[in-house]
Specification:
Blueprint: H1 6-19, H2 26-33, H3 37-44, H4 52-62, H5 74-92, H6 105-120, H7 124-142, H8 147-170, H9 174-191, H10 195-198
Helix pairs in contact: 2-3, 2-4, 5-7, 6-7, 6-8, 7-8, 8-9
């Protein structure tokens, strides 16, 4: 039997749905994933395959990485690796933010908190897809901000960098990981919260370096 037959994927989805706390019904999973109930039923019964987008939506609703739902995890790993260049590009201009929209601070807090939730549940694909845009937006939010707002945005940057580093380190992008650790250590003083750096296990992997500030530090 091929590793990713509809039946094998469906069984994994059904397993994680049943293992959720509280247990999810097929209807609840369909609503959370924004997928038709009939589609969920057919996937779990092995009557149809699942596209990457549908798999991602179901995995997000279940709070797991898509790799947990397939036997052939290399395909998901390849998608994560394919997203790493966008992450590298996003941090390349950390001190010269480009023009673009900036969401209100409560929305930025929520977006960063979501990356942390993904990191804690090892949802690396979700992070890899979402964090590049976030890491481009946060320096824009910091630029020209009053001191109190700039400090909070700097703290959000540290947290977002940590989530990005989890992906880079997990997938063997050591140079990218080192750069992200460097940026964590750069942004932490602007946040005026040394615990942000001290609490990061990644910070111990690389020595501190001097980096110029865009957060008013």
């Amino acid at each position: 039997m091929p590793p990713n037959t509809p039946g094998s994927v469906g069984r994994r989805i059904a397993y994680y749905r049943a293992a959720a706390r509280p247990r999810m019904t097929q209807q609840q999973l369909a609503e959370a994933a924004h997928v038709a109930l009939g589609t969920i039923r057919k996937i779990e019964q092995g009557e149809r395959g699942v596209t990457d987008d549908t798999l991602d939506a179901i995995a997000a609703a279940l709070g797991v990485d898509p790799s947990r739902l397939v036997a052939d995890r290399e395909h998901v790993s390849s998608r994560v690796r394919d997203a790493l260049p966008a992450l590298s590009a996003a941090i390349a201009a950390y001190d010269v933010p480009d023009d673009g929209p900036v969401r209100p601070l409560p929305e930025l807090r929520s977006a960063v908190a979501q990356t942390t939730a993904w990191r804690l549940s090892a949802q690396y694909l979700q992070i890899a897809r979402a964090v590049p845009d976030l890491l481009a937006e946060l320096p824009r939010a910091a630029a020209g901000s009053p001191p109190e707002r700039a400090r909070e945005v700097a703290a959000l940057l540290v947290t977002a960098y940590r989530s990005a580093d989890a992906v880079a380190y997990k997938y063997g992008a050591r140079d990218l990981s080192a750069r992200l650790v460097e940026l964590m250590r750069w942004a932490a003083p602007a946040a005026q919260d040394p615990l942000l750096t001290a609490a990061s296990p990644a910070a111990a992997r690389n020595p501190p370096r001097t980096v110029s500030s865009v957060c008013g530090g």
